[in-house]
Every structure is written in C-alpha cells, then in structure tokens.
Amino acid sequence: MSRKASIHIKQGHIAEFFHNTREKSTKNSIFTTKNNYVNNNAKNAILLYKKELSIRKELYTKRTGQKLQKKAITLFSSIINLDKQHTQKDLEKVVELLEKKLDTKVVQYALHKDEGHLDGDEKKINYHGHIMFLGLDSKGVSVRKKLDRKMLRDLQTEVAKILGMERGDPKRKAKRLDTYDYKNYKKREEESIKRLKEENNRLKAENKRLKEENNRLKEELAKMQDLKILNNELRAELKQIGAKRADYAQLEQLNKELKAEIKAKTLTIDELLKKLADYEKINIHKEHKQYDKAELEQEKEKFMNEFFSKYDVDEVIQKRDEYNQIIFKNMDFTTDIDKIYKVVNDKADELNLSDKDKEILMNIAKLEHYNALIEQIDNNNHNNLNKQNMLKL
C-alpha cells in the first residue's frame, strides 16, 4: 500500500537541529545514513536561526511597541511523509511552499532514509523529511496565527500535489471496530504510547543538555568560520538589493574590525550576531524606512524658518548655484542624512571652504534631503494610484 501525503507542524526545539543532521545518535536510525541529506549542520542552522530571530524580534517590537513574550513560539518543526523515489529537490519544493505561504524563513531541512524497522528479513524504511522554520514572519508577525484549520488543509493538499502522492481524505469518518479488532488496536496503541514516552523522556534529557549547551554558547567565543558564513549571507543580500561599491566597502571594514576582535578573543557568538544584525538593519533594510509626508513638511518648514533667519536667501541661492556642479551633482538626497553630510563635508574640506560656507552647504543639503523625500512619497502615491486604476480596468 502506497503512503499518503502528510505534513505535521509542531513547536520546534534546538535539539532537533542535531537529530536532523545525525550529529547526535538516534535509536530510530537503524539503516545506513549515506542516503540522508541535510542542507545545514546544527551549528550553522542555530547561527542562522538566532540571526533571523534577532531581526524579527526587533520588527515585532517596532510594530507593537512591546517586547516579544517569552512564551511565543519562535521555532517550528514540520515532518513530511515521503516515498523511496523522493529526493532533496522534492523536499526543497515543500520548503519553498512554506516560505511563500507563511512568509517565514527555513533554517534547516533534512531528508531521512535511515529510520524504520525489520519485518523478518524485509526492510521497512520510514521515508520522511524535516523542515525547521522561524515562528515569526518577515514583519515580526506570529506564524502560529496563520496556522488555522484552512491553512493546514491547504498545506496538506499542496504538499500532496508537489510530491505526487495521494492526499488523506479530510472527510473520512472513523469505522466502528469489533471486540477483536479493538483489543488489537489497544495493544498496538499501548506499545506505541510506551515507545513515545521513552522517546519523549530521551528528548527531554537531550533538550535539557542542549539548553545548557546553548547557555554556554552565549559565552563561547566567535570563530573566523562563523564570521565567514554570516558575511557571505550579507554579501548575497547586498547583491540582491543592487548595493553599490561603498556598501560593500563598509561591510569589508566591519569585517576587518570583527576579525581583529575574533583574533584577540574578545568577541562572543552572540555579540557577533548582534553586530551583524545591526549592520543589516541599517544598511540592507534601509529602503524599508517609512516617512510621513505631513511630518516631513512640518519639519521642513521649521528648518527653513531657522535657516533663513540666520542667512540671507540670496546668499544661500548664490552658494547653491556656485557649488551645485562641484558638490551636489549626482548626489542621492533620499539616502541617510549623515551620509549626505559626510560627502558634503569631505568635498568642502577638499575645496578649503570657510566654516560659514560649509555650514550653508550642509543646510542646503538638508533642505534638498527634505525635498527629495517628499517627492519620493508623491511619486510612490502616484504609482500606487496608477496600479489601482489598472486593476479597475
């Protein structure tokens, strides 16, 4: 009888990262592990999980104004029924489905072909996969809230379609058992409960040990390999957003500083994750910063009153026209104001300008910054209106 498709989602635990990689032994693994596959070893998966969780916790706090509750589920584990013919490519399709449907991040997935039992001389292999993913989505929203009955039904249907397996009947009703069948059923149930209790006790002990190890990891010093893994991920993200050479140079500078700290043995893994997460928030997710047009216009008006109460309007216009091509040409005024100030300051120093001229140019740059941000909001609103009109058509 062919197996039916099934995906079971539950709260995940750190111990499962080690189970999935077979870095820790499991009594269910009785056949060769050479046909198994895992995309990430336990340590790298934990590093990625902690990095993503740090970012998503920050987004949760920013969205709600509260810290994430301790009881919140931040890691989910799913088990997927598979057949002999299924490969890592099939499992990766399920990974893509979960990331798309739940807006989550998968940090580890594994294909197991070494568990099962012997029925006489015949091998009965339990082909299955494990997928570990974040409990917060890309906006810091709880994934658990999305896992309602409809979502779970849809996932069962789509997983069956992806794997080319028969889906279990969601409307199937239980059949009434006669006395003989019932006794056999209860006997098997008791044996299963006993095995599950033993496995549960083993996992509890393993989880306790791993919690202790996790606490130790908070104090464990970072290694060059840890930095290399996380740095490669950040470079990939920079490439994805079309970053400029200056962005890569800034990451390389941070890399040098972190390497020096690692070499001096003064940087823990937790500190490494926090510093790289801070870099990511400032330099990679900067395009997601939202501005309010009314607030910007109020700030701009207040700034102009202060600016032109100190300097003559004609003098300001003269300085802007004089240095427009030299200092302001091709400048992106929508970027961070501190970066704009640095560019203006450096160019003014090259030209040996007076402190007064430098101050005027800094203020002109700030005014252009306000104008650019307001124009950007207007353009976005116009584009959104066009899209709505197209949809109506």
Short account of what is shown:
The chain has 393 residues and is an alpha+beta fold. It contains twelve helices and nine strands. The protein is elongated, with a radius of gyration of 29 Å.
Task: Please characterize this protein's 3D structure.
By secondary structure, this protein is of the alpha+beta class. The chain has four domains: 4-172, BirA Bifunctional Protein, domain 2 (2-Layer Sandwich); 173-219; 224-287, no CATH class; 293-392, no CATH class. Helices cover 61% and strands 10% of the residues. It is built from twelve helices and nine strands. It has helices at 15-21, 42-64, 88-102, 149-163, 179-219, 224-240, 245-263, 269-283, 293-310, 313-328, 337-350, 355-392; strands at 4-5, 7-11, 37-38, 75-81, 106-112, 116-119, 122-125, 128-134, 166-167. The strands form three sheets. A five-stranded antiparallel β-sheet has the order 2-4-8-5-3, with helices on both faces. A two-stranded parallel ribbon has the order 1-9. Strands 6-7 form a two-stranded antiparallel sheet. Helix 1 (15-21) packs antiparallel against helix 2 and helix 2 (42-64) crosses helix 8. The radius of gyration is 29 Å and the shape is elongated.
The SSE string, one letter per element, is: EEHEHEHEEEEHEHHHHHHHH
Give the overall shape, derived from the CA principal axes. elongated
The main pleated sheet reads as: 5 strands, antiparallel
Order of the strands making up the biggest sheet: 2-4-8-5-3
Name of the top-level CATH class of the largest domain: Alpha Beta
Named at the architecture level, the CATH assignment of the largest domain is 2-Layer Sandwich
Q: Kindly report how far apart the N and C termini lie.
A: 52 Å
Number of helices: 12
